[in-house]
Amino acid sequence: MTALDAGGVVADDRRRPLRGRRPLLPGEDVRLSLGLSVAAGTAIVAFFTFAAFASPDVWVPVIVVIFLVAASVPLCIWLSRGDQRLLRILLLALVLKMGAVGPRYFVNEVVYQGSVDATRYDQAGGVFIEGVAEGRWTLGESELDGFPSQTRFVGYVTGLLYLVFGTSLAGGYFVFSWVAWLGLLCFLQAFRIAFPNAPPYRAALLLTLFPALVFWPSSPGKDALMVFALGLATFGVVSLLYRHRPGVGCLLGALGVYLLWSVRPHVLLVVGAGLACALLARSAPRRGEQGASRSIGVRLVLLVLLVPALLLSLSRVDDALTGGDDEQFSLAATLDNTAASTEVGDSSFDTQGVRSVVDIPFAIVSVPLRPFPFEARSPQLALSSAEGVLLLALIALSARWIWMVGPAALRTPLGAFAAGYSLAFVIAFSNIGNAGILSRQRVQLFPLLFLLACAARALYDERLEARASETQTDGDRPRLGRPSPHPEPELAWSRT
């Protein structure tokens, strides 16, 4: 409706307050401002009182958590784009990721009494901070001084994070857990770029709420950095292949590749295998695109960049596995040594690395699912086997459409990248015979496996919609005889 103002001009209803919002009465704005000021002042006084009587190891993590949550909530709102269901999933994932720090800290610092990598990285970060205060950007006399360059790099990253968030072991747990959470969000965004019309809920649930991805990368160390780096690399690859903001994707992907090359260069080789498969995937150009020539040009550029990256990774892997000396690198000997060194302790089980094509089917089952429940001889093995049981349950629940992983790997760049990466990862890590080590390493596999499964479901839904459209088109034509007594099934793509 419209109304005439004093000058006879039609007044627009858009000047009225939005529905559901009541204008403030006289004096209410003053009382509201006064109340907010009192609340803020009380919070500040309470915090400094708490900080005066509490140890920095207590109040520094509190500041870190407040800062991380304050930065993450707007990010979740922006990523959800008004989708309340997706927003709830992302916020729940943030709460669980921060909450996983408690059990992870308890296991490392109480059960293992601090004899873990996270404690060494924390000590190296503290030494780095002390050196920066004296003008030295080195790890000095830290415990990581004699370790390989990949391990020392994580120590430098820990020190740089401590420069921003403060020196605190518990705070470091929260920061690294948050970094891994950001990497999982990158995986989710990669799926949304590849399949913009598919519902993102299944991918969000699998990527951010799967127990292994919530628990393991929640402490200072390589696991959290690798999840973050793989997320960046996957986002960059998908952005370039699907030509969605390629500039941003190239920058983030380059950062992910650098982190992979610095922390675990052999995983960069696995990423290269996935990228090679993605470049070979057949994908029809989308509506509104200029054609296949531009796609071929992008893939040629990626292929040119892939070759030197793989060569650099091979040199880094050679140095890492031979210790930088002049002895010749032997892949078979390295696999045998890895199997022998990991099949020790209460969490060990017998394994066999991939030596030929015949060994691949068993490795495809063994790496994601082992140890099996009947191999659980200790609490650690029982917890690790529970991951495999949960994964099998998810596969059983998805039996109606999981067979579409083959077409997804052949027809979509994201599916091909995820399938190639997963297969190369299974081959590379098939020789690990320790449940604890394998469980931590699998956090580098599960995100890509879940992306492959979600790509399969997206193709399955597209096939159903195409069949429904054809059926509806045929139904518009005149028919002879009585109509079918069976109505067409309702397609609800948002249903998970």
From TrEMBL:
Instruction: Specify the domain of life of the species encoding this protein.
Output: Bacteria
Note down the stretches annotated as region Disordered: 467-496
Where does the record place Basic and acidic residues bias? 467-489
Which residue ranges does UniProt annotate as crossing the membrane? 32-53, 59-79, 160-188, 200-218, 224-241, 267-284, 296-314, 381-402, 414-437, 443-460
| UniProt keyword terms in alphabetical order | Membrane, Transmembrane, Transmembrane helix
Q: What's this protein's name? A: Uncharacterized protein
